[in-house]
Amino acid sequence: EYEEADGYFSLIGEDAVGAFGGWDGWVYYINGKEATVGMADCVLAEGDSLLVCYADPYGDEPTLLPQAAVAVAGEHYVFTFTAQVNTFGDDSAMTQSTVPVAGATATLGDKAYTTDDKGQVSVPRSALSGSTVSVQISKVSADGKPLTLPFASDYTLALPQPPSFSDVSQSAWYREYVLELVALGAIEGYEDGTFRPTREVTLAEFIKILACLTDGFDASAVTFQSYFTDVKAGDWFAPYIVWAVDKELISKGGTLGPNINLSRQDMALIAYKYATKVMGKSMPATNDAPAFVDEADIGEAYREAIYFMQRAGIIEGVRTESGFTFEPKANTVRSQVSKVIVKLIQLP
Fold first, then answer.
1. What is the pTM of this model?
2. pLDDT in tens, 175-213
3. Do 106 and 79 contact (CB within 8 A), yes or no?
4. Separation CA 187–CA 260 (nearest Å)
């Protein structure tokens, strides 16, 4: 049963437009996107899907049509809920943007969770079994207006399988960090199914990992700058190096040595600058910071950053009979990089 007024649905069933005193009413979506013409003027093509629903797309708290995705992050599944929002400028031109569905109740299987400000929920992989999980989402205003549209009652997501590397054992101390960094898309394994945790990391490789973890980074949008004599416009690492200079992670001028192996003290300093300058994090002093027994080998310019990282629990050093050593001039390897970066992004 429906009623029509001026070419629009005014009532379907018992739900009438304006029930919440705003622009709430009956709207429709084509293939999951909000339509840009009135329903009377819409022409469907073969294969199109039509969704008619009660919503308020233009209210102070607009109703969102959610999209769901899931990824593996170490020992967790991370579910992300987003939605497309249309805004109109003074010239009536429409701009569509993606926003997180924050503060909503996400029901995954038989348990309910609340999405964070990124529209995400992190669930231990051990809490979900099988190859799929049923997913539902709900959010309403104080007066009961729907702020998210529900998924179909039988909606499910396929649970991705975590990557497996022949040289990363279940008991390896770095396993969870490797799997999480791979899941984030910041580092990859090799075609032969290995991760090569003890392989050295170059300066350019490390900077690329940091850039790829940064929201909004787009290598194709970086304008090349001749900051170093050994970094040319056609080099694969050029946009990442330019980005790092612009973010004050490294200083420009002279030669850089992008293909040299990264020392542990350089890794610590760049990581510290990334956390404070790019991520805007402060280093919590949660751990004691006894001096490393090889402190005399640490360059003066690196010590403050290294001890900040130690107190924050991001680096520990290597335990020996005489105490912890930092081995500042040793080459950094892929397993160490994985731990440091994951610890960084876990900072509050």
1. 0.64
2. 989 988 888 888 999 999 999 999 999 999 999 999 999
3. yes
4. 18
